[in-house]
# Entry
Amino acid sequence: MTIWFDMDGTIADLYGVENWLPMLRASDPAPYMLAKPLVRLSALARVLNRLQDEGYRLGVISWTSKTGTPAYNAAVTATKYAWLKRHLPSVIFDEINIVPYGVNKNLFNDGNDILFDDEKPNRENWTGTAYDVDNILETLKSLPAPRFLAESIGPGNRPKIFFKNPLDNSLQ
# Structure
């Protein structure tokens, strides 16, 4: 079972960056790096590492810019990876998927996965369990250990990182 996180508006305050929209329209990826965390990231990292040790997989599903060119979206993707590395360096995500704006995030859902996303349509389309951004830490702390994985993945046995694009079924 995977716990998925959106970034913009969920864990990163893109919309709180001054002049974020004009900057995005000017193909400037800076707002994605300047975004401040929306949760206490040290606490989030501790909870995520514990959940991963208990058997959960961790993932990110985030969109690129709505009107971005391929070159700009590549810059946005690199910037989002850098934001995660800077702000959550101790978290080893099993999957990080930065996909074109509007891609159905449910494509990444194995059916019973968990999603944290600020956008209501994404939560409504999710066939697993979806949460809004209120009380992320408290919600995560209340999750039970996944029974079917708890015995096969233990502390210190974390999976390797790989990146999956749902549009072409190949590893990148």
The mean pLDDT is 88.
